[in-house]
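Course exercise 7: structure representation. Students receive a sequence record and must write out the corresponding structure in token form. The form below is the worked example handed out in class, using HEAT repeat domain-containing protein (376 residues). Read each field label carefully; the graders check that inputs and outputs are placed in the correct fields and that the protein name is recorded exactly as given.

STUDENT ID: A-19
EXERCISE PROTEIN: HEAT repeat domain-containing protein
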Amino acid sequence: MIIRTILRLFAIGSLSTVGHTAPNGQSPEHMAMLSYASLDHIQWGEPNRGMTLGIEDIETSVTFPLSPVITIHLANQTDETISNLMRQRASFIVEIDGVMYGESSMGGAIGQLRPRETWGPYYLSTQYFKRIAPAKRGVHDPDAPALTLTSGHHILRVHFGHMNSVVSPPIAIEITMVPYPEAEAAIEFSQALRSSNQDRRRDAALRTGELRVRGAIPALIDTLADRDPTTRRYAATSLGQIGDRAASETALRQSLNDPSMEVVFAAAEALVSCGVPLDTAWIEPVIRSEESIFQNAIWLIRRHAGEAAVPALIRCLDPNDPKVSSYYNYTLVWQIGACGGPSYRFNHDFDGKGTPEQVEENRQTLSRLIALLSES
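STUDENT ANSWER:
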């Protein structure tokens, strides 16, 4: 059996992990709960109206150690286009040892499979799947038991369709979920983090922290200097998820000088996750940048700066922008009041349709708040 899931290196859910702080450290129980089933090749089911479903990998993560991510492929084996296919989790039903699970979700991309075309890999994350009755495929009870897949031998079937309309017969495979091999993972992830392929490095930087692969910390530290800012951000986040302060603190502090504000934020958040007390000086430049990440930075200060939070947020105010269109100042004024500081109104309108009196009121609000710094 080969460790295909390590070699696949895929990201669970959204690639944006900004604002998320995972639990610190890694206990032996973390790795003991992780499991995977490795397949030598994509296993395809029988076609139905030209649609064929295939399964490649099955793997759990530290965040959801009992809810597998199933790597899915869809293929059109005909010479005609298959239209109106909904790519969302609600399109899939997972059956484990005869018990069916599904999810009710909205949205998802509607697409089509051209003749002889294959979709994939599609990473089917099952953490929100609930038990459903076979006769009521489209009915999802939020209080029903969740899908779980423990180590051991199982018969797994995956159905593809949309609510009550199943367009493909299930692909059924017998799998044996085995404990995730930490030592091999450290080798494989370290190699992937040093790969010449950018996508491989990026995925590995994200996934290493999700699996708490301590043996890959040196490679993650090297990745903090990657040319791709997203990869650097993932590496910083992963170091925080692993939570080894002694091994990571120096490198993460150096990343506080990164030109990317998202990397700076990730490094600051990772330091906090490793047990380093937050210094608001790390994060105030992220707020002042007014980049999209600035609100996450505000929340980091609110959660971890204690009594230093209000002065830090006041220092970030822009006294030269009292306009009602200033969402930045509006947000800061509101957050200052929400975390125990003085509560003032900052008039705001996205279209900038404010009166001169409202602008003057905003100017006075900014002046009053900034004056508090000299009084303290």
